[in-house]
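Today's session is about reading a structure prediction critically. Students often jump straight to the picture, but the first step is always the sequence itself: look for stretches that repeat, for charged clusters, for runs of hydrophobic residues. Only then move on to the predicted structure, which in these notes is written as discrete structure tokens rather than atom positions. Here is the chain we will use throughout the hour.
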Amino acid sequence: MSTPTATRLQAADASVTVLSNTAFVTDWARRYFGPWWNAFEALASSVCAGPLVTADLDEKAYTDLGALVGSCPHDEVTYAKVRLLLARDSTGTITGVCQDEGLTYRSEQLGGHAAFSGRTAEPLALATARIAREMIRAALLRDGWTLLHASAVVQGERALLTFGSKGAGKTTTALLLASRGAQLLANDRVFVKAISDDLRVLPWPSAAAIGLGLLDALGLYDIVRDRLQAGEQLHPTQHQDVTDALLAGRREPLWEPGGKREQKVQVFPDQFATWFGMQLATGGRAAALLFPRIDPASDPAVIDGDRTLGEDDFMSGATEDRYPDHFGLASGINGGGSDLARATVADRLAALPHHQITLSHDIQANADFLAKLAGDL
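Below is the predicted structure for this chain, in token form.
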């Protein structure tokens, strides 16, 4: 029998321990969360209390739980884009089976303990990291944090938050500033909480989605391609078509059938540091807001406008369509935070400097402009 291993995650006052009979799972959690959350190896023998995720490679447990769910009343739902069968018993325990990924889930004690059984290591590690992150999120939201739909970089302690709809330039702004020495805190969403006179921010660890065209414009394309050709891998949620395009040297945007959604490169959090030489921030204090838009015909500049924060700039339960809370991890709370927390944060953010900006297709000019703007704030 394999020796159990453990990884503990810590974000502000929230913590979760991942315990597994395979080091692949706990090593994955340390790699995935380590750059942004305080993920560190723990003694498996010390795990005795607190929020816990156990994840074991166990063919028999997978088979037995799968048979249990199939033999009793259950619902069929979608989770992480795959089919999941869910059953609930009189004690509140929720059991699920995902045959496509060879996984079973079990959530009990009002979300305080989640257990997985899997047939293969990688799907087990992915599912474990996903649920551990959801447990941290639930604890932070209960503690008064809220979740913004924004990218963020940090200089010193000062965090610059960038808002906008898809294609507005959130990712471009964050990565350009990170390439000029700022620390990258978030690519698409960020935790924020009013603490005394400050608005404190925390990262939301996730794989970052970067289009092929943007990757090329940022000067990162050849780095990624060379790494792949050397046998390294990007995040496994990346579509094989994207990997094939990179290996073939294709630099144009790649679209899903129908042309509605771009297929993007999926970068591990730690690859920002190891591949791109960008530093990652573990927290900061909100200092200013940017609202970019891309205008190929204009030079990068601050422009007049009255853009303010709206409902779409906050995450909510409705925005979590890929990972609905089927396991009761965040029972009774909004996926983006309480109404009071959101209102308090919105008022504090409204008092910070706001800058509407245009960015061009000239990446060098954009980087120069953003670095100067950030330095002046």
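Discussion point for the tutorial: The CA atoms of residues 146 and 337 lie 4 Å apart.
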